[in-house]
Design goal:
It is a single chain. The protein is α/β, with parallel strands linked by helices and 264 residues long. The chain folds into two domains: 160 residues, Spore Coat Polysaccharide Biosynthesis Protein SpsA, Chain A, CATH 3.90.550.10; 78 residues, no CATH class. The protein has seven helices and twelve strands. The strands form two sheets. Strands 1, 2, 3, 4, 5, 6, 7, 8, 11 and 12 form a ten-stranded mixed sheet that branches. A hairpin with an 8-residue loop joins β9 and β10. α1 runs parallel beside α2, α5 packs parallel to α7 and α6 runs antiparallel to α7. The radius of gyration is 20 Å and the shape is globular. The chain starts with 5 loop residues before the first strand and ends in a 16-residue tail after the last helix.
């Protein structure tokens, strides 16, 4: 049975270190679209060597930039990957089978994380991410920092497929990302008038650690899993600590100065 054609869509900026692996693992796509934001390394050359249709547009934010790339695609079905994400062996067959007669508006692919000197154990919990979808029924949302695809219709998970996020190859890179992301989350939480920042930064980090290390089985990844769980709990601590700091400074405009929601 013939499958639906699909476009692989990627946005890039100085991703020469990982883009080759990404494109080699997904070379069965009917089209490759790469939207670059001004790379100064070999990113564009690598993309063109793999037959990608390349365009350049200044980066403003992740969601709008990714949507521009999706709009460039020739096919309605989109495989949405980042330049540091690599499909695992065997995923091709699962994707092609799912597209023979798609019963959903989109499909989640489980993601395994690169954990510094190794890769997340395949038996630990893998979060599913909506990466294969019908663009006639979906588009990027406007969530800051963690913008993602949302579809109008059922979503299924391709459990026998997954991909590896190759982004953080050392602890310093993960800590730098945590600092950027936690700062970006503050504006969103302020806009949603998130409260209880003090109790949350006290209670939630240890809960997060236990959930990751024990219940999501990160312990199967050895010391790398332990470090990743600790840094994950630090991330949730940091975003609530920064929110607490912003509220005390009056950024949230929630009656600060009248005594409301302030600590003694």
């Amino acid at each position: 049975m013939a499958r639906e054609p699909f476009s692989l869509v990627i946005i890039t900026f100085n991703n020469a270190d990982t883009l080759e692996q990404c494109l080699e693992a997904a070379d069965f796509a009917d089209e490759i679209v790469v939207l670059d934001s001004g790379s100064t390394d070999a990113t564009v050359e690598i993309a063109k060597r793999h037959g990608a249709r390349v365009a350049i547009n200044p980066f403003d934010d992740y969601g709008p930039q990714k949507q521009r790339a999706i709009d460039m695609a020739a096919h309605d079905w989109i495989l949405n990957l980042d330049a540091d994400e690599v499909l695992s062996p065997g995923t091709r067959g699962v994707i092609e089978h799912a597209l023979e007669s798609p019963a959903a508006a989109g499909f989640r692919l489980p993601r395994r994380e690169r954990m510094f000197w190794g890769v997340q154990h395949p038996w630990s919990h893998r979060n599913g991410h909506l990466r294969l979808f019908d663009r006639r029924r979906g588009r990027m949302n406007a969530v800051p920092v963690h913008a993602a695809v949302e579809v109008d219709g059922p979503v299924a998970t391709l459990h026998r497929a997954d991909f590896v996020n190759m982004g953080d190859d050392d602890i310093a890179a993960r800590v730098a990302k945590i600092n950027r992301y936690s700062s970006g989350m503050v504006a969103d939480k302020l806009a949603r008038r998130q409260r209880f920042s003090g109790p949350m930064m006290l209670v939630y980090p240890p809960i997060f650690f236990v959930r990751q290390y024990v219940f999501k089985r990160y312990f199967l990844s050895g010391w790398a899993g332990f470090v990743a769980s600790v840094l994950g709990s630090f991330y949730v601590f940091l975003k609530y600590a920064k929110l607490h700091e912003a509220r005390r400074a009056g950024t949230g405009d929630w009656g600060l100065g009248t005594g409301e929601d302030q600590e003694p």
